Every structure is written in C-alpha cells, then in structure tokens.
Amino acid sequence: MARSDLLLSIVRAGATGDRAALRSSVEAAVAEERSKNHHTLADRLQRALNAVAVTPPAASTSTAQTGKDTILETEPRQRLEDLILPLPVAQQVRQLIEEQHRADLLRAHGMQPRHRILLSGPPGNGKTSVAEGIAEALAVQFFTVRYDALVGSFLGETNTRLARLFDYARTVPCVLFFDEFDSIGKERGDSHETGEIKRVVSFLLMQIDQLPSYVVTVAATNHAELLDRAVWRRFQLRLALPKPTREALAAFLDRQFDTWPEPAGIEAKTLAGKLGSISFAEALEFCQTVRRQHILSLANRALKDILREQVELWATRVAPENTDATRSGKTSSSAEQSKGRSSTSVGRRRGTSKTV
Asked: What region holds the AAA+ ATPase domain (predicted)?
C-alpha cells in the first residue's frame, strides 16, 4: 500500500486538476510499490495513470502549479564524495542518507528517517554543495526556494505563497533548499520587525513541521544568531561548516593541481599558507584564475610562473576583515578627534571662566 502522504497528494492533485502533480505522485507510488516487489499493483497504478484524463478547472489555477513558481528546480550534479567536509558533518550526512534509503525498515518499527537539516557557517564553505550533494545521493529533485517570488508586499500574500510552495514540495520526493534562511526565519522577538514578518515565521515553522519525511528540508545561514529560537528545534541535524583548516585547504588545492596540465611548482600546503584564511570558494576562484591566464597565454608561459604572479597579486586584494578594520579605525579616530575637540572646548571655557 502506498504511503498515506502520497495518497493525499494524489487526491489533492486530482481534485485541483493538476496533471503534472498527479503524474509525479502516482509515479512515486509506482516506484515505491516496485521497490517492495508489488509489481502487480504497480502495473495497475501505471495503467490507471495512462488511462485517466485529468481536466484542469476552467476558472482557477492549480495550487501546486502556482507553488512551482516559487522554486528553482535543478538537476543535482554535486557529489558528496567530492567535497572536503569536517568529519562530524560527513558522518551525520551519511547517516541521514542511509536513513532515507532504508526508510521502509524504520517505518516498520514505527520510526521516520530524519529529514530536516540546518547548515551554518561563513559563505563559500559548502552549504549549498552539501544540500545538492544530498539530493544527488538520494537521486531526488533539488528545489531551491526563490525569495523574490515568495515574499509579497501585501498582507498575508507571503503566507499564501508559502502554502503553495509546501503543497508543491509534498508532491514528489525532493530536497527543498532554503538559502540565506535568516532572511525569512528571523527572531520574532526583534522589536524592529513588523507583525507581518512574525506571522510569516510562525506559519513557516508550522509548514516545516508538517512536511513528510520524503521531503528533505535543508536550510543554510551565514548568520545563525539572527534565527528565531524556535527554528533550532525544528531541525534534527544542526551542522557547522566553518572556514577550512590549512590541512583541508591544502587537500582541496591538491585536487585542483591534479587537473592542471603542468606541475604547479609549489606544494599545496605551502600555497595554502600563502593564501591565508580563505573559503573553499575563494580558493577555487584563485585556481581558476591561474588556469584562465595559462590558457590565454597559449602555453607561452609556464604555469608555475603564472601561479607565482597570482600569489603576489592575491596579497594585494581587499579582504572583508580589512574593510572592517578600516571602519573600526575610522570610528575610533573620529571618536578620539571628537573627544579631543570636546576637551579643548571645555578647557577653553574653563580658561575663559577663570579670566573673567
């Protein structure tokens, strides 16, 4: 027998006349029955799907189809095996994937596989790649939420679109990815936020709670401190992806060197030390810049010479911490100057008072 959540999706899609949602839900049910060796039932479902015509309502748009407008659907290509992850993160992600693959065994014992993950850490260190890698490992669709199509300007509009988004996600096994989750899951106790935002957060948490276990929800944030406290309880896995250590960065650079047509002329660990504390994304961009320059040189320059030149240029780049320090320096300087002017002014007033 197909899962109750799939049956509900089939009924909902048939009632609304959504042919695409009906087909995807029935095909998911067929796949499940075949995995249980219920081939007769699977064949009957397939024949019924091919024989029944679904007529969409004349005056209304399908709820699930409208929800599709709020996501970006992509084919997952990133493999988890190609990522360099902290050991605890890699272990817990592998556990989640095993639970999803063996979900029937867990359900037979009254348990559900885990399916809600929160990824936290600075940008460029693999949060999106981990989400895509999970989708690739599970062989399911990868849905990225589009906030530009989700957030509305009218009262209640965002909640309506959220409902449609989650209704569509329920129609098929998938990974539903919320990037920059802090932009929608903000702390409700913030006095600067409006009542509408607080209602959106409450509705979002309720919808996440009601998602079936075959929808793996992955939320990523660069600012975990901004998340509502109730958000943390919703996620069964809370994983940190910090900037890579020098050893991890060296391993990543070594993989890049393996794809180059010439020797780099430098050890990966040495180069990692020269690049400093950077993200995987920055390291990849550096390596791609070296390859671009080598390609454009038409092999007239040695790759190791280009690499040496790019390392020197890298040292002159503007880094976020430098701009923060500059701002802090200007703020301190302005405060000191203001304090100095204030002291001088007080001194002058005191001097004037004594003279009088």
From this structure: 113-245
